From TrEMBL:
Keywords: ANK repeat, Repeat, Signal
SMART domains: ANK
Listed SUPFAM superfamilies: Ankyrin repeat
UniProt superkingdom: Eukaryota
The protein, known as: Uncharacterized protein
Native species: Triparma columacea
Length: 263
């Protein structure tokens, strides 16, 4: 009986959840890009099965992230992400609280190489890019909303021939193009999106509040973005000119009046 009790205790210890200190240590290693394929071949990793067994268990960072979610959120290098996936990390698991996937975290950080690595190891990139977080944002929305890294958008478009994910509306009813039109300060992200036929055909689609991509670009006041939209087929109306006037974008207002005079 004593042997059975001791044997039971030893099994419990073997399968016990790792300590908080262990998760913090591994979190730091991932953040600092000290985890790669070679690491999983080291004596430490070979003798400690937790490094593979708990890759998909929330515990990294503040305790709520899986290894891949944490790596993407921290902007880890693509080789770290590759090693985690190759050793059992699930690139499709969403954060339990925010529903943010590793691809979304990478897109939000503008980490195009890591994003491309994640998408290349997923069977259905289109389905993955169609997922939304708690606010209804896709990875493309998040890239447009934060860094505006056009390379991140390119990585998403290159990952799959079907770009229907680019037309998904977020919780506010805005497409990624509409979000990008407001936040893009250079025009590169908007240009990348408009290289897709489906996106270009949706250029005049209004959000629930009636605002189009052009209206949002005018509100932000970046002339380069406004010009890109107009050249791509955006419809210029009185609302756009009024927005420019109301926002005090005098130069842009005059430009739009000139464009309308030429139509």
């Amino acid at each position: 009986m004593l042997l059975l009790v001791l044997f039971g205790l030893s099994l419990s210890a073997a399968f016990a959840q790792p300590s908080r200190d262990w998760f913090l240590k591994f979190s730091d290693m991932i953040r600092d890009n000290k985890v790669d394929d070679a690491f999983f071949e080291t004596e430490e990793a070979q003798q400690d099965p937790k490094y593979k067994d708990y890759l998909n268990t929330p515990g990294m960072g503040d305790g709520s992230f899986t290894s891949l979610q944490w790596a993407a959120k921290m902007g880890s290098k693509s080789w770290t992400v590759d090693a985690l996936i190759d050793n059992g990390g699930d690139p499709t698991l969403a954060h339990e609280g925010t529903l943010t996937t590793p691809a979304m975290f990478a897109a939000r950080e503008g980490n195009s190489r890591t994003l491309a690595s994640i998408l290349s190891k997923i069977d259905s990139p289109e389905a993955e890019l169609s997922k939304v977080d708690e606010h209804g944002n896709t990875a493309l929305h998040l890239a447009a909303l934060t860094t505006g890294n056009a390379m991140a958008a390119t990585a998403m478009f290159k990952s799959t021939p079907d770009h229907a994910f680019a037309l998904i509306e977020n919780g506010n009813g805005n497409t990624a193009l509409q979000v990008a039109s407001f936040y893009d300060s250079s025009g590169s992200f908007v240009s990348t999106m408009l290289s897709d036929d489906k996106v270009r055909k949706s250029i005049n689609k209004p959000a629930p509040n009636g605002r189009t991509a052009l209206h949002l670009a005018v509100s932000h006041g970046v002339k380069d973005v406004v010009e890109i939209l107009l050249k791509s087929g955006a419809k210029l109306d009185d609302v756009a000119i009024k927005i420019a006037a109301d926002k005090g974008h005098e130069e842009l207002e005059e430009f739009l009046k000139g464009v309308r005079g030429e139509l």
